[in-house]
Input
Amino acid sequence: MSDSRTLTLATLRAEGACRDQVTLFRAKFGNRVEITEARCIEHAAVFSWAWAADNLLSAPARAAYKAATAPAGAAYDAATAPAGAAYDAATASAWAAYDAATASAWAAYDAATAPAWAAYDAATASAGAAYDAATASAWARAYINDTE
Output
């Protein structure tokens, strides 16, 4: 088993990485990098590892990744829960004041836009039903004929 594997900028692009991550990858590594555990730890706070797991790992490797990171996720959740609760408590009165201050504006907005939404719904109903039927039919054919 090897201790490294090459990852290219082209692979990131092909798999749909966001522009920020592509730009960051290029700035740090150019067009390719040899992936090692040490290098990933060095850049632990920089790259989106969850995205990388979902998009660059095979299903078995992704399952192993999720199993390996579950304890760290649970520890993070436990460690940050008190801070989250304190934040919620500290901001509750501000949210209540905001909700009270904006309630009448939202009610007026809803009343003003209701006729337009009703007209939109009426105008698009048949197109929506036709789209739903076409996509349901296409999915059924694809699923029935999927041999993998």
Notes: The longest strand covers residues 5-8. Residues 5-56 form one domain.
